[in-house]
Specification:
Elements lengths: L2 H4 L13 H11 L3 E5 L5 E6 L25 H12 L3 H4 L7 E2 L4 H11 L3 E6 L2 E7 H13 L7 H14 L7 E7 L2 E8 L2 H12 L6 E8 L4
Length: 225
């Protein structure tokens, strides 16, 4: 699946001159945790998130002015931090550049960026302009929709070949000796595994192959040595 398949197209945004108080109010009213910042042409400039708003002098949570860590910061860095935590406009406090993906980016790329940068949302852009937004909630909705989808019908022999191919691609299955038979969509697994964990992974993996209606294991444990 691609980012375009699950992204929200009607994205709530703010402009660079939007006051911080207004941005915070929008997030509270819309029950969202972040706002893309765009210019008049729709070009993505940055993101204002809850994380950009929790260190503020108004609520006495701004970073301390002293401390040994600040000794390692340049005057430029300290000045930048001051603007970040005392800024009055979206452009002054937003995180930039915003981490984004193209509409045709696979969801694996979206999740990788979310994990690497510890963010909850990824803007989707085309030629620099915002066209959508993928959040963690969108990924959950895609998961629920995919699992609720009607099962597909696959011929038994084709299904057996798919299962064999899938197992060959899983490194954790390399030490298992498994023979697969399929009848009316039910996969029969014969052979040996090295551990209970490997057996559980095998059953889960085979159940996940599109077209498999059920799995019936006949698996013993390989003797050590």
């Amino acid at each position: 699946m691609k980012a375009a398949d699950i992204m929200v197209k009607d994205v709530v945004t703010v402009g660079p001159e939007t006051p911080v108080r207004e941005a915070a109010s929008i997030m509270l009213e819309r029950h969202i945790s972040g706002l893309p910042v765009v210019d008049g042409s729709g070009r993505l400039l940055g993101i204002v998130s809850e994380g950009d708003l929790i260190r503020r002098p108004e609520i006495e949570t701004d970073p301390p002015k002293s401390g040994w860590l600040r000794l390692f910061l340049s005057d430029e860095s300290r000045a930048r931090d001051f603007v970040k935590h005392h800024g009055r406009l979206a452009r002054e406090i937003m995180t930039q550049p915003a981490i984004s993906v193209a509409a045709d980016a696979p969801l694996t790329e979206v999740v990788r960026l979310m994990e690497r940068h510890r963010v909850k949302r990824i803007p989707v852009v085309e030629r620099g302009k915002l066209v959508g937004l993928v959040t963690r909630a969108d990924l959950l909705r895609a998961l629920v929709a995919r699992q609720a989808a009607a099962p597909i019908e696959v011929q038994d022999e084709e299904l057996r070949m798919r299962i064999d191919s899938m197992l060959r691609d899983e490194d954790w299955a390399a030490t298992a000796v498994v023979y697969v038979q399929v009848e009316k969509g039910v996969a029969q697994l014969w052979g040996t595994v090295e551990s209970a964990e490997q057996r559980e992974a095998l059953l889960l993996a085979v159940r996940g192959v599109p077209g498999v209606k059920d799995v019936q294991p006949h698996l013993g444990h390989a003797l050590p040595g």
